[in-house]
Amino acid sequence: MKSSLNKQSILLLGMNGLFVLAGALSGTFLNVYLWKTKPDYAMIGWFTVSQQVALGLTFWVAGKWVKEHNKMNALRAGTALSGIFYLLVLWSGPRAVHYIWPLGILLGIALGLFWLAFNVVYFEVTDSRNRDRFNGWVGLLGSFAGIVGPWLSGWIIASMENDTGYRVIFSISLAIYIVGVILSFFLKKRKVKEEYNWAEPWNRLTDGGSPWRPLSLALAAQGIREGVFSFLITLLVFVATKQEWKLGQFSLITSAVSLVSFWAAGRWLRPRYRSAGMLIGALLLVAVLLPLLWKVQYGTLLFMGIGTSLFIPLYLIPITTLGFDLMGATDRNVAERVELVVLRELCLMTGRLIGTFVFIGVLSVSRMPHVITWLMIGLGCAPVIGWFFVRGMMKSAGWKPASE
C-alpha cells in the first residue's frame, strides 16, 4: 500500500523542481551556445567528461561533509555554485569554448554537491512505501520544467538578436537558483550520529555476496546511455533544424509526453511488475532509435524523443527505487546511506565516462552521420544489459527493505 508524501518530501520536491527548471531553461541550450561558437562534437564530449569527473569526485569527497556536518549547506552550496557557473558563462561569452575544462569542473562540483545532498535527504524523507510515488513526482516535475523551460528559452533566443537571448535565459536561471537557496532553509536539519567511511563504496563492490555488485553494474550500464544522450540529442536536433525555437518545440512536445508517462508509471507501476517494466522499457528505448537509420531529420528525431519519453519511466523508476530500497534493507545500510549514495553516483559516473569516451573515440575515426546513428543504437542497448544484472533482484524478496 502506498503512503502519501509528507511536508518535508513535498518541500524537497519543490526545491528539486526549481533546480531542474533552472537547468531546463539554460542547460538545454548551453551545449548549443558552445556549438555555435565552435561546432565540434568532441569539444562537447570533453565538456561532459570534465563535468562527470568533477561530479563523481565531489560525491566521494563531499560525502564526509554531508554525513558528519550539515547536508543542507551542501544543498545550498550546489545551488549557489550552479548560479556562479552561469555568471561566468555570461561574463566569458563566446570565449567560454576556451575554458571548457574549468567551466565543466565547476558545473560538475555544483551538480555533485546538490545531488549528493538531495539524494540523502530524499532517502530520509521517504520510505519504501512512497518512493515510487516520489520518483513519479520527480519525473512529473522534471517533465513540466522540460515543457516550460526549453520552449520559453527557445522563444526568447529566437526573438532577440545575436546572443542577447542566451544572456537573458542564463540570468533567469541565476535568479531561480537564488530562490532555491532560500527555499532550502525550510528543510529540517537531521542529527548526525555516524562518521564517514571513505572506503565503504569499495568494500561493497569487493564483497562477493553484496547485492550492490549487480546493482552497480546495472547503474554503470544506465550511465553508458545517459552520458552521451544527455548532450547529443539536443545537438542533433539543432544541427538538423538550425533553429533554437525548433529545439524548444522538441523539448516541449517530448516533455509533455514524459509528464503523462511519469505520472502514469508512478501511479500504476507496482513492485511485482518492476522487472518486466524495466525489460520492456529498455527494449522499446532501443526500438525508437531505429528510424534514425533511415534519415536523421527533425521528424525521426521527434519520433525518437516521444518514444523515449513514453518508455523511459518504465526503466528509470524501478532501478531508482531498487537502489534506495537497498539502502533501507538493513540497519547497517541505513547508517551508511551517504556512502551508498556515493557508490550509486560513482557507478553512474563510470558508465557515463565509458559512454562518452567511446563517443569521442569513434568520432576521432569517423564523423559520418550513419556512424553516429549506429553508435547511438549501440549505446542505447546498455539499459538492456542493466536489466540483465538486476532481473533476479527484482523478482526476489531478498532486497525488500526490512527497516529504515
TrEMBL record:
Keyword Transmembrane: yes
Compartments in which it is found: Cell membrane
Keywords, ordered alphabetically: Membrane, Transmembrane, Transmembrane helix
One Pfam family hit: MFS_1
Domain of life the protein comes from: Bacteria
Xref: InterPro entries: MFS, MFS_trans_sf, Sugar_transport-like
Transmembrane regions: 12-35, 41-62, 74-93, 99-122, 134-158, 164-187, 276-294, 300-326, 346-365, 371-390
CDD domains assigned to the protein according to its UniProt record, in alphabetical order: MFS
Membrane topology: Multi-pass membrane protein
Protein name per the record: MFS transporter
